[in-house]
Amino acid sequence: xxxxxxxxxxxxxxxxxxxxxxxxxxxxxxxxxxxxxxxxxxxxxxxxxxxxxxxxxxxxxxxxxxxxxxxxxxxxxxxxxxxxxxxxxxxxxxxxxxxxxxxxxxxxxxxxxxxxxxxxxxxxxxxxxxxxxxxxxxxxxxxxxxxxxxxxxxxxxxxxxxxxxxxxxxxxxxxxxxxxxxxxxxxxxxxxxxxxxxxxxxxxxxxxxxxxxxxxxxxxxxxxxxxxxxxxxxxxxxxxxxxxxxxxxxxxxxxxxxxxxxxxxxxxxxxxx
Length: 273
Ligand SMILES: Nc1ncnc2c1ncn2[C@@H]1O[C@H](COP(=O)(O)OP(=O)(O)OP(=O)(O)O)[C@@H](O)[C@H]1O
Ligand SMILES: [Mg+2]
What we know:
Elements: E1 11-21, E2 27-38, E3 43-47, H1 54-61, E4 69-74, E5 77-78, H2 87-96, E6 97-100, H3 113-123, H4 129-139, H5 155-167, E7 173-177, H6 185-197, E8 201-205, H7 209-215, E9 218-222, E10 228-233, H8 234-239, H9 241-246, E11 250-257, E12 260-267
Parallel strand pairs: 3-8, 3-9, 6-7, 7-8
Antiparallel strand pairs: 1-2, 1-4, 4-5, 9-10, 11-12
The structure holds adenosine-5'-triphosphate (ATP) and magnesium ion (MG).
Adenosine-5'-triphosphate is lined by residues 20, 30, 48, 50-56, 102.
């Protein structure tokens, strides 16, 4: 029997390393040999403390930063800032793989919300642009704001416009950097439902461990300098306080009851008991 050709992963990272130069001129290394595969439809949560490399990893995956070592393959094709200078590849990749920046202001530069949402679909030559704008503005409660300049909006409204811009492309791979950071509970619930109902592959960074449990089924936990501490079922990662402590996502508390002192590990989380 002949082997059936099987589809490559949606995204595959092999032996990735990223180098940046600090203000003292010294080079620093992130992800010293990171391997990650994202399979079709998987929803993965990216966890780690401030500065561990989550945003840098998402930008590398989106072809915005050059890897120092290793490679990134999107649906079998090698991706890098240099390769994305080729317009044909860039068009296909940018249509499929979208990145929500941690600070959505970085994405907003059009004179109105309507033009902001229409910008990506127009640039990529998609059809039904007014319908796309109406659909995603409606879904995110932005219809009343379509004529408003994005810079006048509140933080959460800007985040919603940035999300509408991404969803309007109907992407297959969503890289979301703390997408719920400025969202109210209702909008957060909408995003969770929309992601879970979507066939798209998603990698979502968050500091909110309670919410993480709803955002996906797999966890990537990064430690210091982007070292991969865990890749597996999310519920196992969230229940493993020692792992969370190593990742800086739980801390050791000292409690005193009369003459007795004992130690507890606590998740750094809003809703943790
Ligand atoms: N080009 C660069 N120049 C200077 N520092 C950089 C550069 N690239 C990455 N870094 C550093 O790498 C580390 C990782 O940054 P990154 O923004 O990826 O962290 P993060 O995990 O997203 O953190 P946070 O949770 O605060 O968003 C930080 O210490 C950052 O200062
Ligand atoms: Mg970040």
